[in-house]
Amino acid sequence: MMWSLSNRADTKARLIADRHYNRQKIGSRQFVPPGRCLVLYTDNDKGRAFWVTSFPFAEYVKHEWAGAWICSAFRNEGAGTASEMITQAIAATRAHFGDPPELGMITFIDRKKVKPTIVRGKEIWGWTWIKAGFKQVGETKGGLLAFQLLPANMPQSQQAIGTQQHLF
Fold first, then answer.
1. Is 11 strand, coil or helix?
2. Residue-level pLDDT at 166
3. Angstrom distance (rounded) from CA 48 to CA 53
4. Nearest-5° angle of CA 35, CA 36, CA 42?
5. Which domain of life is it from (predicted)?
6. Domain-by-domain residue ranges, the chain?
7. Which of 58, 52, 56, 70 is nearest to 14 (CA)?
8. How far apart are CA 22 and CA 17, in angstroms?
9. Quick one: pLDDT at residue 167?
10. How high is the pLDDT of residue 101?
């Protein structure tokens, strides 16, 4: 496991979050949407990265994947292979929240702010997510691409570094 448990106001993670394309208020102390969340951070000899899993209550969600875990932010600044990091973050999410919801995990990609990967001469959006097992499942009303990983395709639960062990 390369990820360490962090929190929504961790200064080191916030500095990376400030460079993420969906950051709304650069420099503000908290960088995670309100509600249940898991924040992960890694810093190694190659680079650093952060990850946020949000688990909003379905009644407050306006897209068609209400009830799913959401990767609301992931930024890798050279810390490792992104698809492997995504897989480990999902394993840590399972350890943190327990059994995944029926809709699994969803993430959104803004084509206006992210470049596609060229694979065999063809533009592929979300290539890193596809390599981690996600499938493109549609678009939001605002035009974001939606990628989903269902529970059957998720890695086994694995705790992040620094997670307190359960006594019972």
1. helix
2. 65
3. 17
4. 115
5. Bacteria
6. 4-153
7. 52
8. 9
9. 61
10. 95
